[in-house]
Design goal:
Mean pLDDT: 97
Distance between the termini: 15 Å
Largest sheet: 8 strands, parallel
Family: Belongs to the metallo-dependent hydrolases superfamily. TatD-type hydrolase family.
Radius of gyration: 17 Å
Protein name: TatD family hydrolase
Pfam families: TatD_DNase (PF01026)
InterPro entries: DNase_TatD-rel_CS (IPR018228), Metal_Hydrolase (IPR032466), TatD-like (IPR001130), TatD/YcfH-like (IPR015991)
Low-confidence stretches: none
Strand order of the largest sheet: 1-2-3-4-5-6-7-8
Keywords: Hydrolase, Metal-binding
CATH topology: TIM Barrel
Helix content: 40-55%
Shape: globular
Strand content: 15-25%
């Protein structure tokens, strides 16, 4: 069995096909999925899916790319996360690739999410792109991670260096690989995936984006996460069943409320 640790099946292009999406998950032995929040106005849709389907979980948070959206407070995130199907805070983090200029608001939003994670004891889902130095610095400053009373989390859709992966792992974080790792052009990321211990790996789709080979260029969906596992199995030269079992165990070890 596999788990899609990060998807956005509340997005309209997937929500309109929900019976088909769920059937494809079952066909491909994807037992659970975590539907990840990107802003507060759409959070009710994320929660509704988790409430409707026992094998769908949810998070609460505001993505760093969303500039013109209601800003979350620590109290708001804590309150919304009280629902038992909300198993994580995020996605949050920093993105200096898509946005430029004075991004202090992004850094403050990231700090807000870390504070909420520490209060709720729910793991963080972190997005970082072209901002790894500041991401790690703020994680350390705010006590993100499994030490000092903090809670760990996952570096989602990881595309950074091995040094960044190791720094995150040292703080208790997991590294999640998406369909990007299957791309022919992703040689550097594949080298990172080869070195990251299986015990610290999650798999994800980030659907509807980044469909893995052989579906690259098409709309992604949770059922395709099996292809990420198949690629990691071949890359590491280990049985597919081992990848499936360990990444599933990793998911439940991190997101304990999903048990």
């Amino acid at each position: 069995m596999y788990i899609d640790s990060h998807c956005h099946i509340n997005f309209p292009e997937l929500a309109a096909r929900m019976p088909e999406i769920l059937a494809k998950m079952a066909e491909n032995k994807v037992s659970h999925a975590l539907c990840v929040s990107v802003d507060l106005p759409d959070f009710p849709q994320v929660l509704a899916l988790a409430e409707q389907y026992p094998h769908i979980f949810a998070s609460v948070g505001v993505h760093p790319d969303y500039e013109d959206t209601p800003e979350p407070s620590v109290d708001t995130l804590v309150r919304l996360s009280e629902h038992p199907k909300i198993i994580a805070i995020g996605e949050t983090g920093l993105d200096y690739f898509r946005l430029t200029g004075d991004l202090e608001w992004q850094r403050e939003r990231f700090r807000t999410h870390i504070k909420a994670s520490r209060i709720t004891r729910k793991p963080l889902i972190i997005h970082t792109r072209a901002a790894s130095e500041d991401t790690l610095r703020i994680m350390r400053e705010e006590g993100a991670g499994s030490g000092d009373g903090g809670v760990a989390g996952v570096m989602h859709c990881f595309t950074e260096s091995l040094d960044v992966a190791r720094a995150a792992i040292d703080m208790g974080f997991y590294i999640s690989f998406s369909g990007i790792v299957t791309f022919k052009s992703a040689k550097e990321l594949q080298a990172v995936a080869l070195e990251v211990p299986l015990e610290r790996i999650l798999i994800e789709t980030d659907a509807p984006y980044l469909a893995p080979v052989p579906f690259r260029g098409r709309m992604n969906e949770p059922g395709y996460v099996a292809h990420v596992a198949e690629y990691l199995s071949a890359l590491k030269g280990i049985p597919l069943a081992q990848v499936a079992r360990q990444t599933t165990d990793n998911f439940f070890n991190l997101f304990k409320l999903a048990r």
